[in-house]
TrEMBL record, chain A:
GO terms for molecular function: 2 iron, 2 sulfur cluster binding; metal ion binding; oxidoreductase activity. SUPFAM superfamilies: 2Fe-2S ferredoxin-like, CO dehydrogenase ISP C-domain like. Transmembrane segments: none annotated. Residues 73-146 form the [2Fe-2S]-binding domain. This is Unannotated protein. Coiled coil: none annotated. Keywords: 2Fe-2S, Iron, Iron-sulfur, Metal-binding, Oxidoreductase. Pfam families: Fer2_2.
From TrEMBL, chain B:
Residues 2-178 form the FAD-binding PCMH-type domain. One of its GO terms (molecular function) is oxidoreductase activity. Pfam families: CO_deh_flav_C (PF03450), FAD_binding_5 (PF00941). Keywords: FAD, Flavoprotein, Oxidoreductase. Transmembrane segments: none annotated. This is Unannotated protein.
Length: 159, 289
């Protein structure tokens, strides 16, 4: 089936099987390997990306369902060489150890901050409750989001 | 890697189009909404439809609005929209309280009201809310539209009154001026299915309960409700003693099964305790406190 999906501002057309999951379309068809493929059951959130500006777990969405939609992945976070504040926050606050959850975590956190630029700690913790991290105990991830909230980008980046 | 078995796929543009596509693809075709119940089942081959009809682009299935004395919720309304709806927050805080504990914020961006109702999971939170509020399901098929009380909507686990060739299009909830409502859930960890949940509404007028609804999930309550407990409470003052007696009737009416979420007696105790807590808060809120 023919689909056209815009990913990080670039249009891609492919002929795919309806049963192809969005995460595999992104990773194996477009070779964008930043989006991680984790639990495959919509629990862990490693595959989180944006579909029309909303975070979605891409292991639980068919690629054909994204036909005509705009996707943003972790590769679309930075503005050229300038990292997004959430990426800087993870760097500054040591918001990762193994890094497996990090792309999905950052996509969730970016959306959280876009909707609520100054979240409380409780709001951050609820916001990331669909993204599982096995290393950090979340403390530094919360700190990374707080850092990003305090250091917003001077120019808005959108995919 | 988990991949569903092959199927045909078509995107419906309207309810009429979806019904025509269902007819065209035959009995083993299924509609897909958010896909967060159906796709995991397809990956495990617990479901193996020949064709999927995608409802996500149907505008007429979206939106939360007031019609007369009812709140109308479109079948494709997402959990996230329920959570942020000002209309629902004003009339029934039970929705907000339940939604905060349904899955996680990202899953709530995709999962839908209609999908949850039609999946008919025995631990579904929205089914308990729907039964508590005594809402109505609107089902559309080639022959036209019919309505079914939500308390009759579920035939059993994973089975509803929606027949082959039909689609759930709306869920409607009566507005009850002065009603207080609340939802209480115990889960093992954030975003998990309920160990037990209870959701209620209560209308207190002239010092007595004039109307109430009690919904329960994950505890084997018939049609996710406890009508005997409601009957007991009507006409009585919302005292601690009366609320506890009603909660006891609700707890005793359940038939929970032991599983990895806990033993049956624990779940029955939760049904009692959570119903009592929800009744207390709803009665207090109906009395303006």
């Amino acid at each position: 089936m023919q689909v056209t999906i815009t990913v990080n501002g670039v249009e891609h057309s492919r002929d795919i099987e309806p049963r192809m999951l969005l995460v595999h379309f992104i990773r194996d068809e477009l070779l964008l390997r930043g989006t991680h493929w984790g639990c495959d059951t919509s629990n862990c959130g490693a595959c989180t990306l944006w579909v029309d500006n909303e975070p979605v777990k891409s292991c639980t969405m068919l690629a054909v369902m994204a036909d005509g939609k705009a996707i943003r992945t972790v590769e679309g976070l930075a503005n050229g060489a300038e990292l997004d504040p959430i990426q800087k926050g993870f760097m500054e606050c040591h918001g990762l150890q193994c890094g497996f959850c990090t792309p999905g975590m950052m996509m969730t956190c970016r959306a959280l901050l876009d909707g609520n630029p100054h979240p409380t700690e409780a709001e951050i913790r609820e916001g990331i409750s669909g993204n599982i991290c096995r290393c950090t105990g979340y403390k530094n991830i919360v700190a990374a989001v707080q850092w990003a909230a305090e250091n917003p980008a001077t120019s808005e980046v959108t995919a | 890697m988990q991949t569903p078995a092959p199927f045909d796929y078509a995107k419906a543009t309207s309810v009429a189009d979806a019904l025509a596509l269902l007819d065209k693809h035959g009995e083993e075709a299924r509609v897909i909404a958010g896909g967060h119940s159906l796709l995991p089942m397809m990956k495990l081959r617990l479901a193996r439809p020949d064709a999927l009809i995608d409802l996500n682009d149907i505008a007429e299935l979206r939106g939360i609005r007031i019609e007369g004395n009812e709140i109308v919720v479109g079948a494709m309304v997402r959990h996230a929209e329920i959570l942020s709806s000002a209309i629902l927050a004003e009339h029934y805080p039970i929705f907000r309280e339940a939604e905060h504990m349904i899955a996680d914020p990202i899953v709530r961006n995709r999962g839908t009201v209609g999908g949850s109702m039609c999946q008919a999971d025995p631990a579904a939170d929205l089914s308990a809310v729907g039964s508590a509020l005594k809402g109505t399901a609107v089902i559309q098929g080639a022959a036209g539209t019919r309505t079914v009380a939500l308390r009759d909507f579920h035939e059993g686990p994973y089975e509803t009154k929606v027949q082959a060739g039909e689609i759930l299009t709306q869920v409607r909830y009566p507005i009850r001026p002065g009603a207080g409502s609340a939802y209480e859930k115990v889960e093992r960890r954030a975003g998990d299915w309920a160990v037990a949940s209870s959701g209620v509404f209560v209308v207190v007028s002239g010092g007595v309960v004039t109307d109430c609804g009690i919904g329960l999930t994950a505890v084997g309550a018939d049609h996710y409700c406890a009508p005997a407990a409601e009957e007991f409470l009507i006409g009585k003052a919302p005292t601690e003693e009366n609320l506890a007696a009603a909660a006891k009737i609700a707890g005793d009416s359940c038939n929970p099964v032991a599983d990895q979420r806990g033993p049956a007696d624990y779940k029955a105790h939760l049904a009692y305790e959570l119903t009592l807590r929800a009744l207390r808060r709803a009665a207090r809120s109906s009395q303006g406190a």
